[in-house]
Design goal:
The protein contains 9 helices and no strands. By secondary structure, the chain is mostly helical. Its main location: nucleus.
C-alpha cells in the first residue's frame, strides 16, 4: 500500500543514512512513491506524506553538501508541489522548497552530470504546475530572478 511505503520512507528520513549511496537510494525511493500519487490525493494520504516532506526540509538533509543529493531532494519536493497544485500551502516552508528547486537548475547545461535527467524533470514539473505563480504569491522575487 502506498501509505505504508510513505510511512517507511518517513521513518528512514528521520535519521537518514550517512552513506551517500544509501541516501540517494532512499531519496529515489521517496520520489518514486510520490510519482505514484495523483494530484488531489485523499486527506489521509496528504496527512501521511507531510512528515516525510518535513523531514526532507530538515537542515540535516536539505543542507547536504552533495549537489546530487540536493537535486534529489528538490525532485521529491517538486513532486509535492505537483501533487498539491493549485492548493499548495502558502507558508515559509514553501520558500525553502522553492529555494531547493531553483538551486537544482544550476549547471542545467551540463548534460553529462548524473543528475541531469532529474533536473530536466524538475523543470518540466515547474512548467506544468506553474510553480512560478506560487513563487510570486510568496514574494520570492529573488528566486524567480535566479531561475531565469
Amino acid at each position: 500500500m502506498l501509505e505504508d511505503g510513505v510511512k517507511d520512507i518517513e521513518n528512514k528520513l528521520t535519521s537518514p543514512p550517512s552513506d551517500l549511496q544509501q541516501l540517494m537510494l532512499l531519496l529515489d525511493k521517496a520520489k518514486n512513491l510520490l510519482l505514484r500519487m495523483e494530484q488531489y490525493p485523499s486527506t489521509s494520504m496528504l496527512t501521511a506524506i507531510q512528515p516525510a516532506l518535513k523531514a526532507l526540509t530538515n537542515k540535516d538533509i536539505s543542507g547536504h553538501s552533495d549537489m546530487d543529493v540536493k537535486v534529489s531532494i528538490a525532485s521529491c519536493l517538486n513532486e509535492r508541489t505537483r501533487i498539491t497544485t493549485p492548493d499548495a500551502p502558502y507558508d515559509d516552508i514553501m520558500k525553502k522548497i522553492f529555494g531547493l528547486i531553483v538551486g537544482a537548475f544550476k549547471n542545467l547545461d551540463e548534460m553529462s552530470i548524473c543528475s541531469f535527467s532529474k533536473r530536466v524533470s524538475i523543470l518540466e514539473i515547474v512548467a506544468k504546475a506553474r510553480s512560478c505563480i506560487f513563487m510570486l504569491d510568496l514574494d520570492c522575487d529573488d528566486l524567480i530572478l535566479a531561475m531565469f
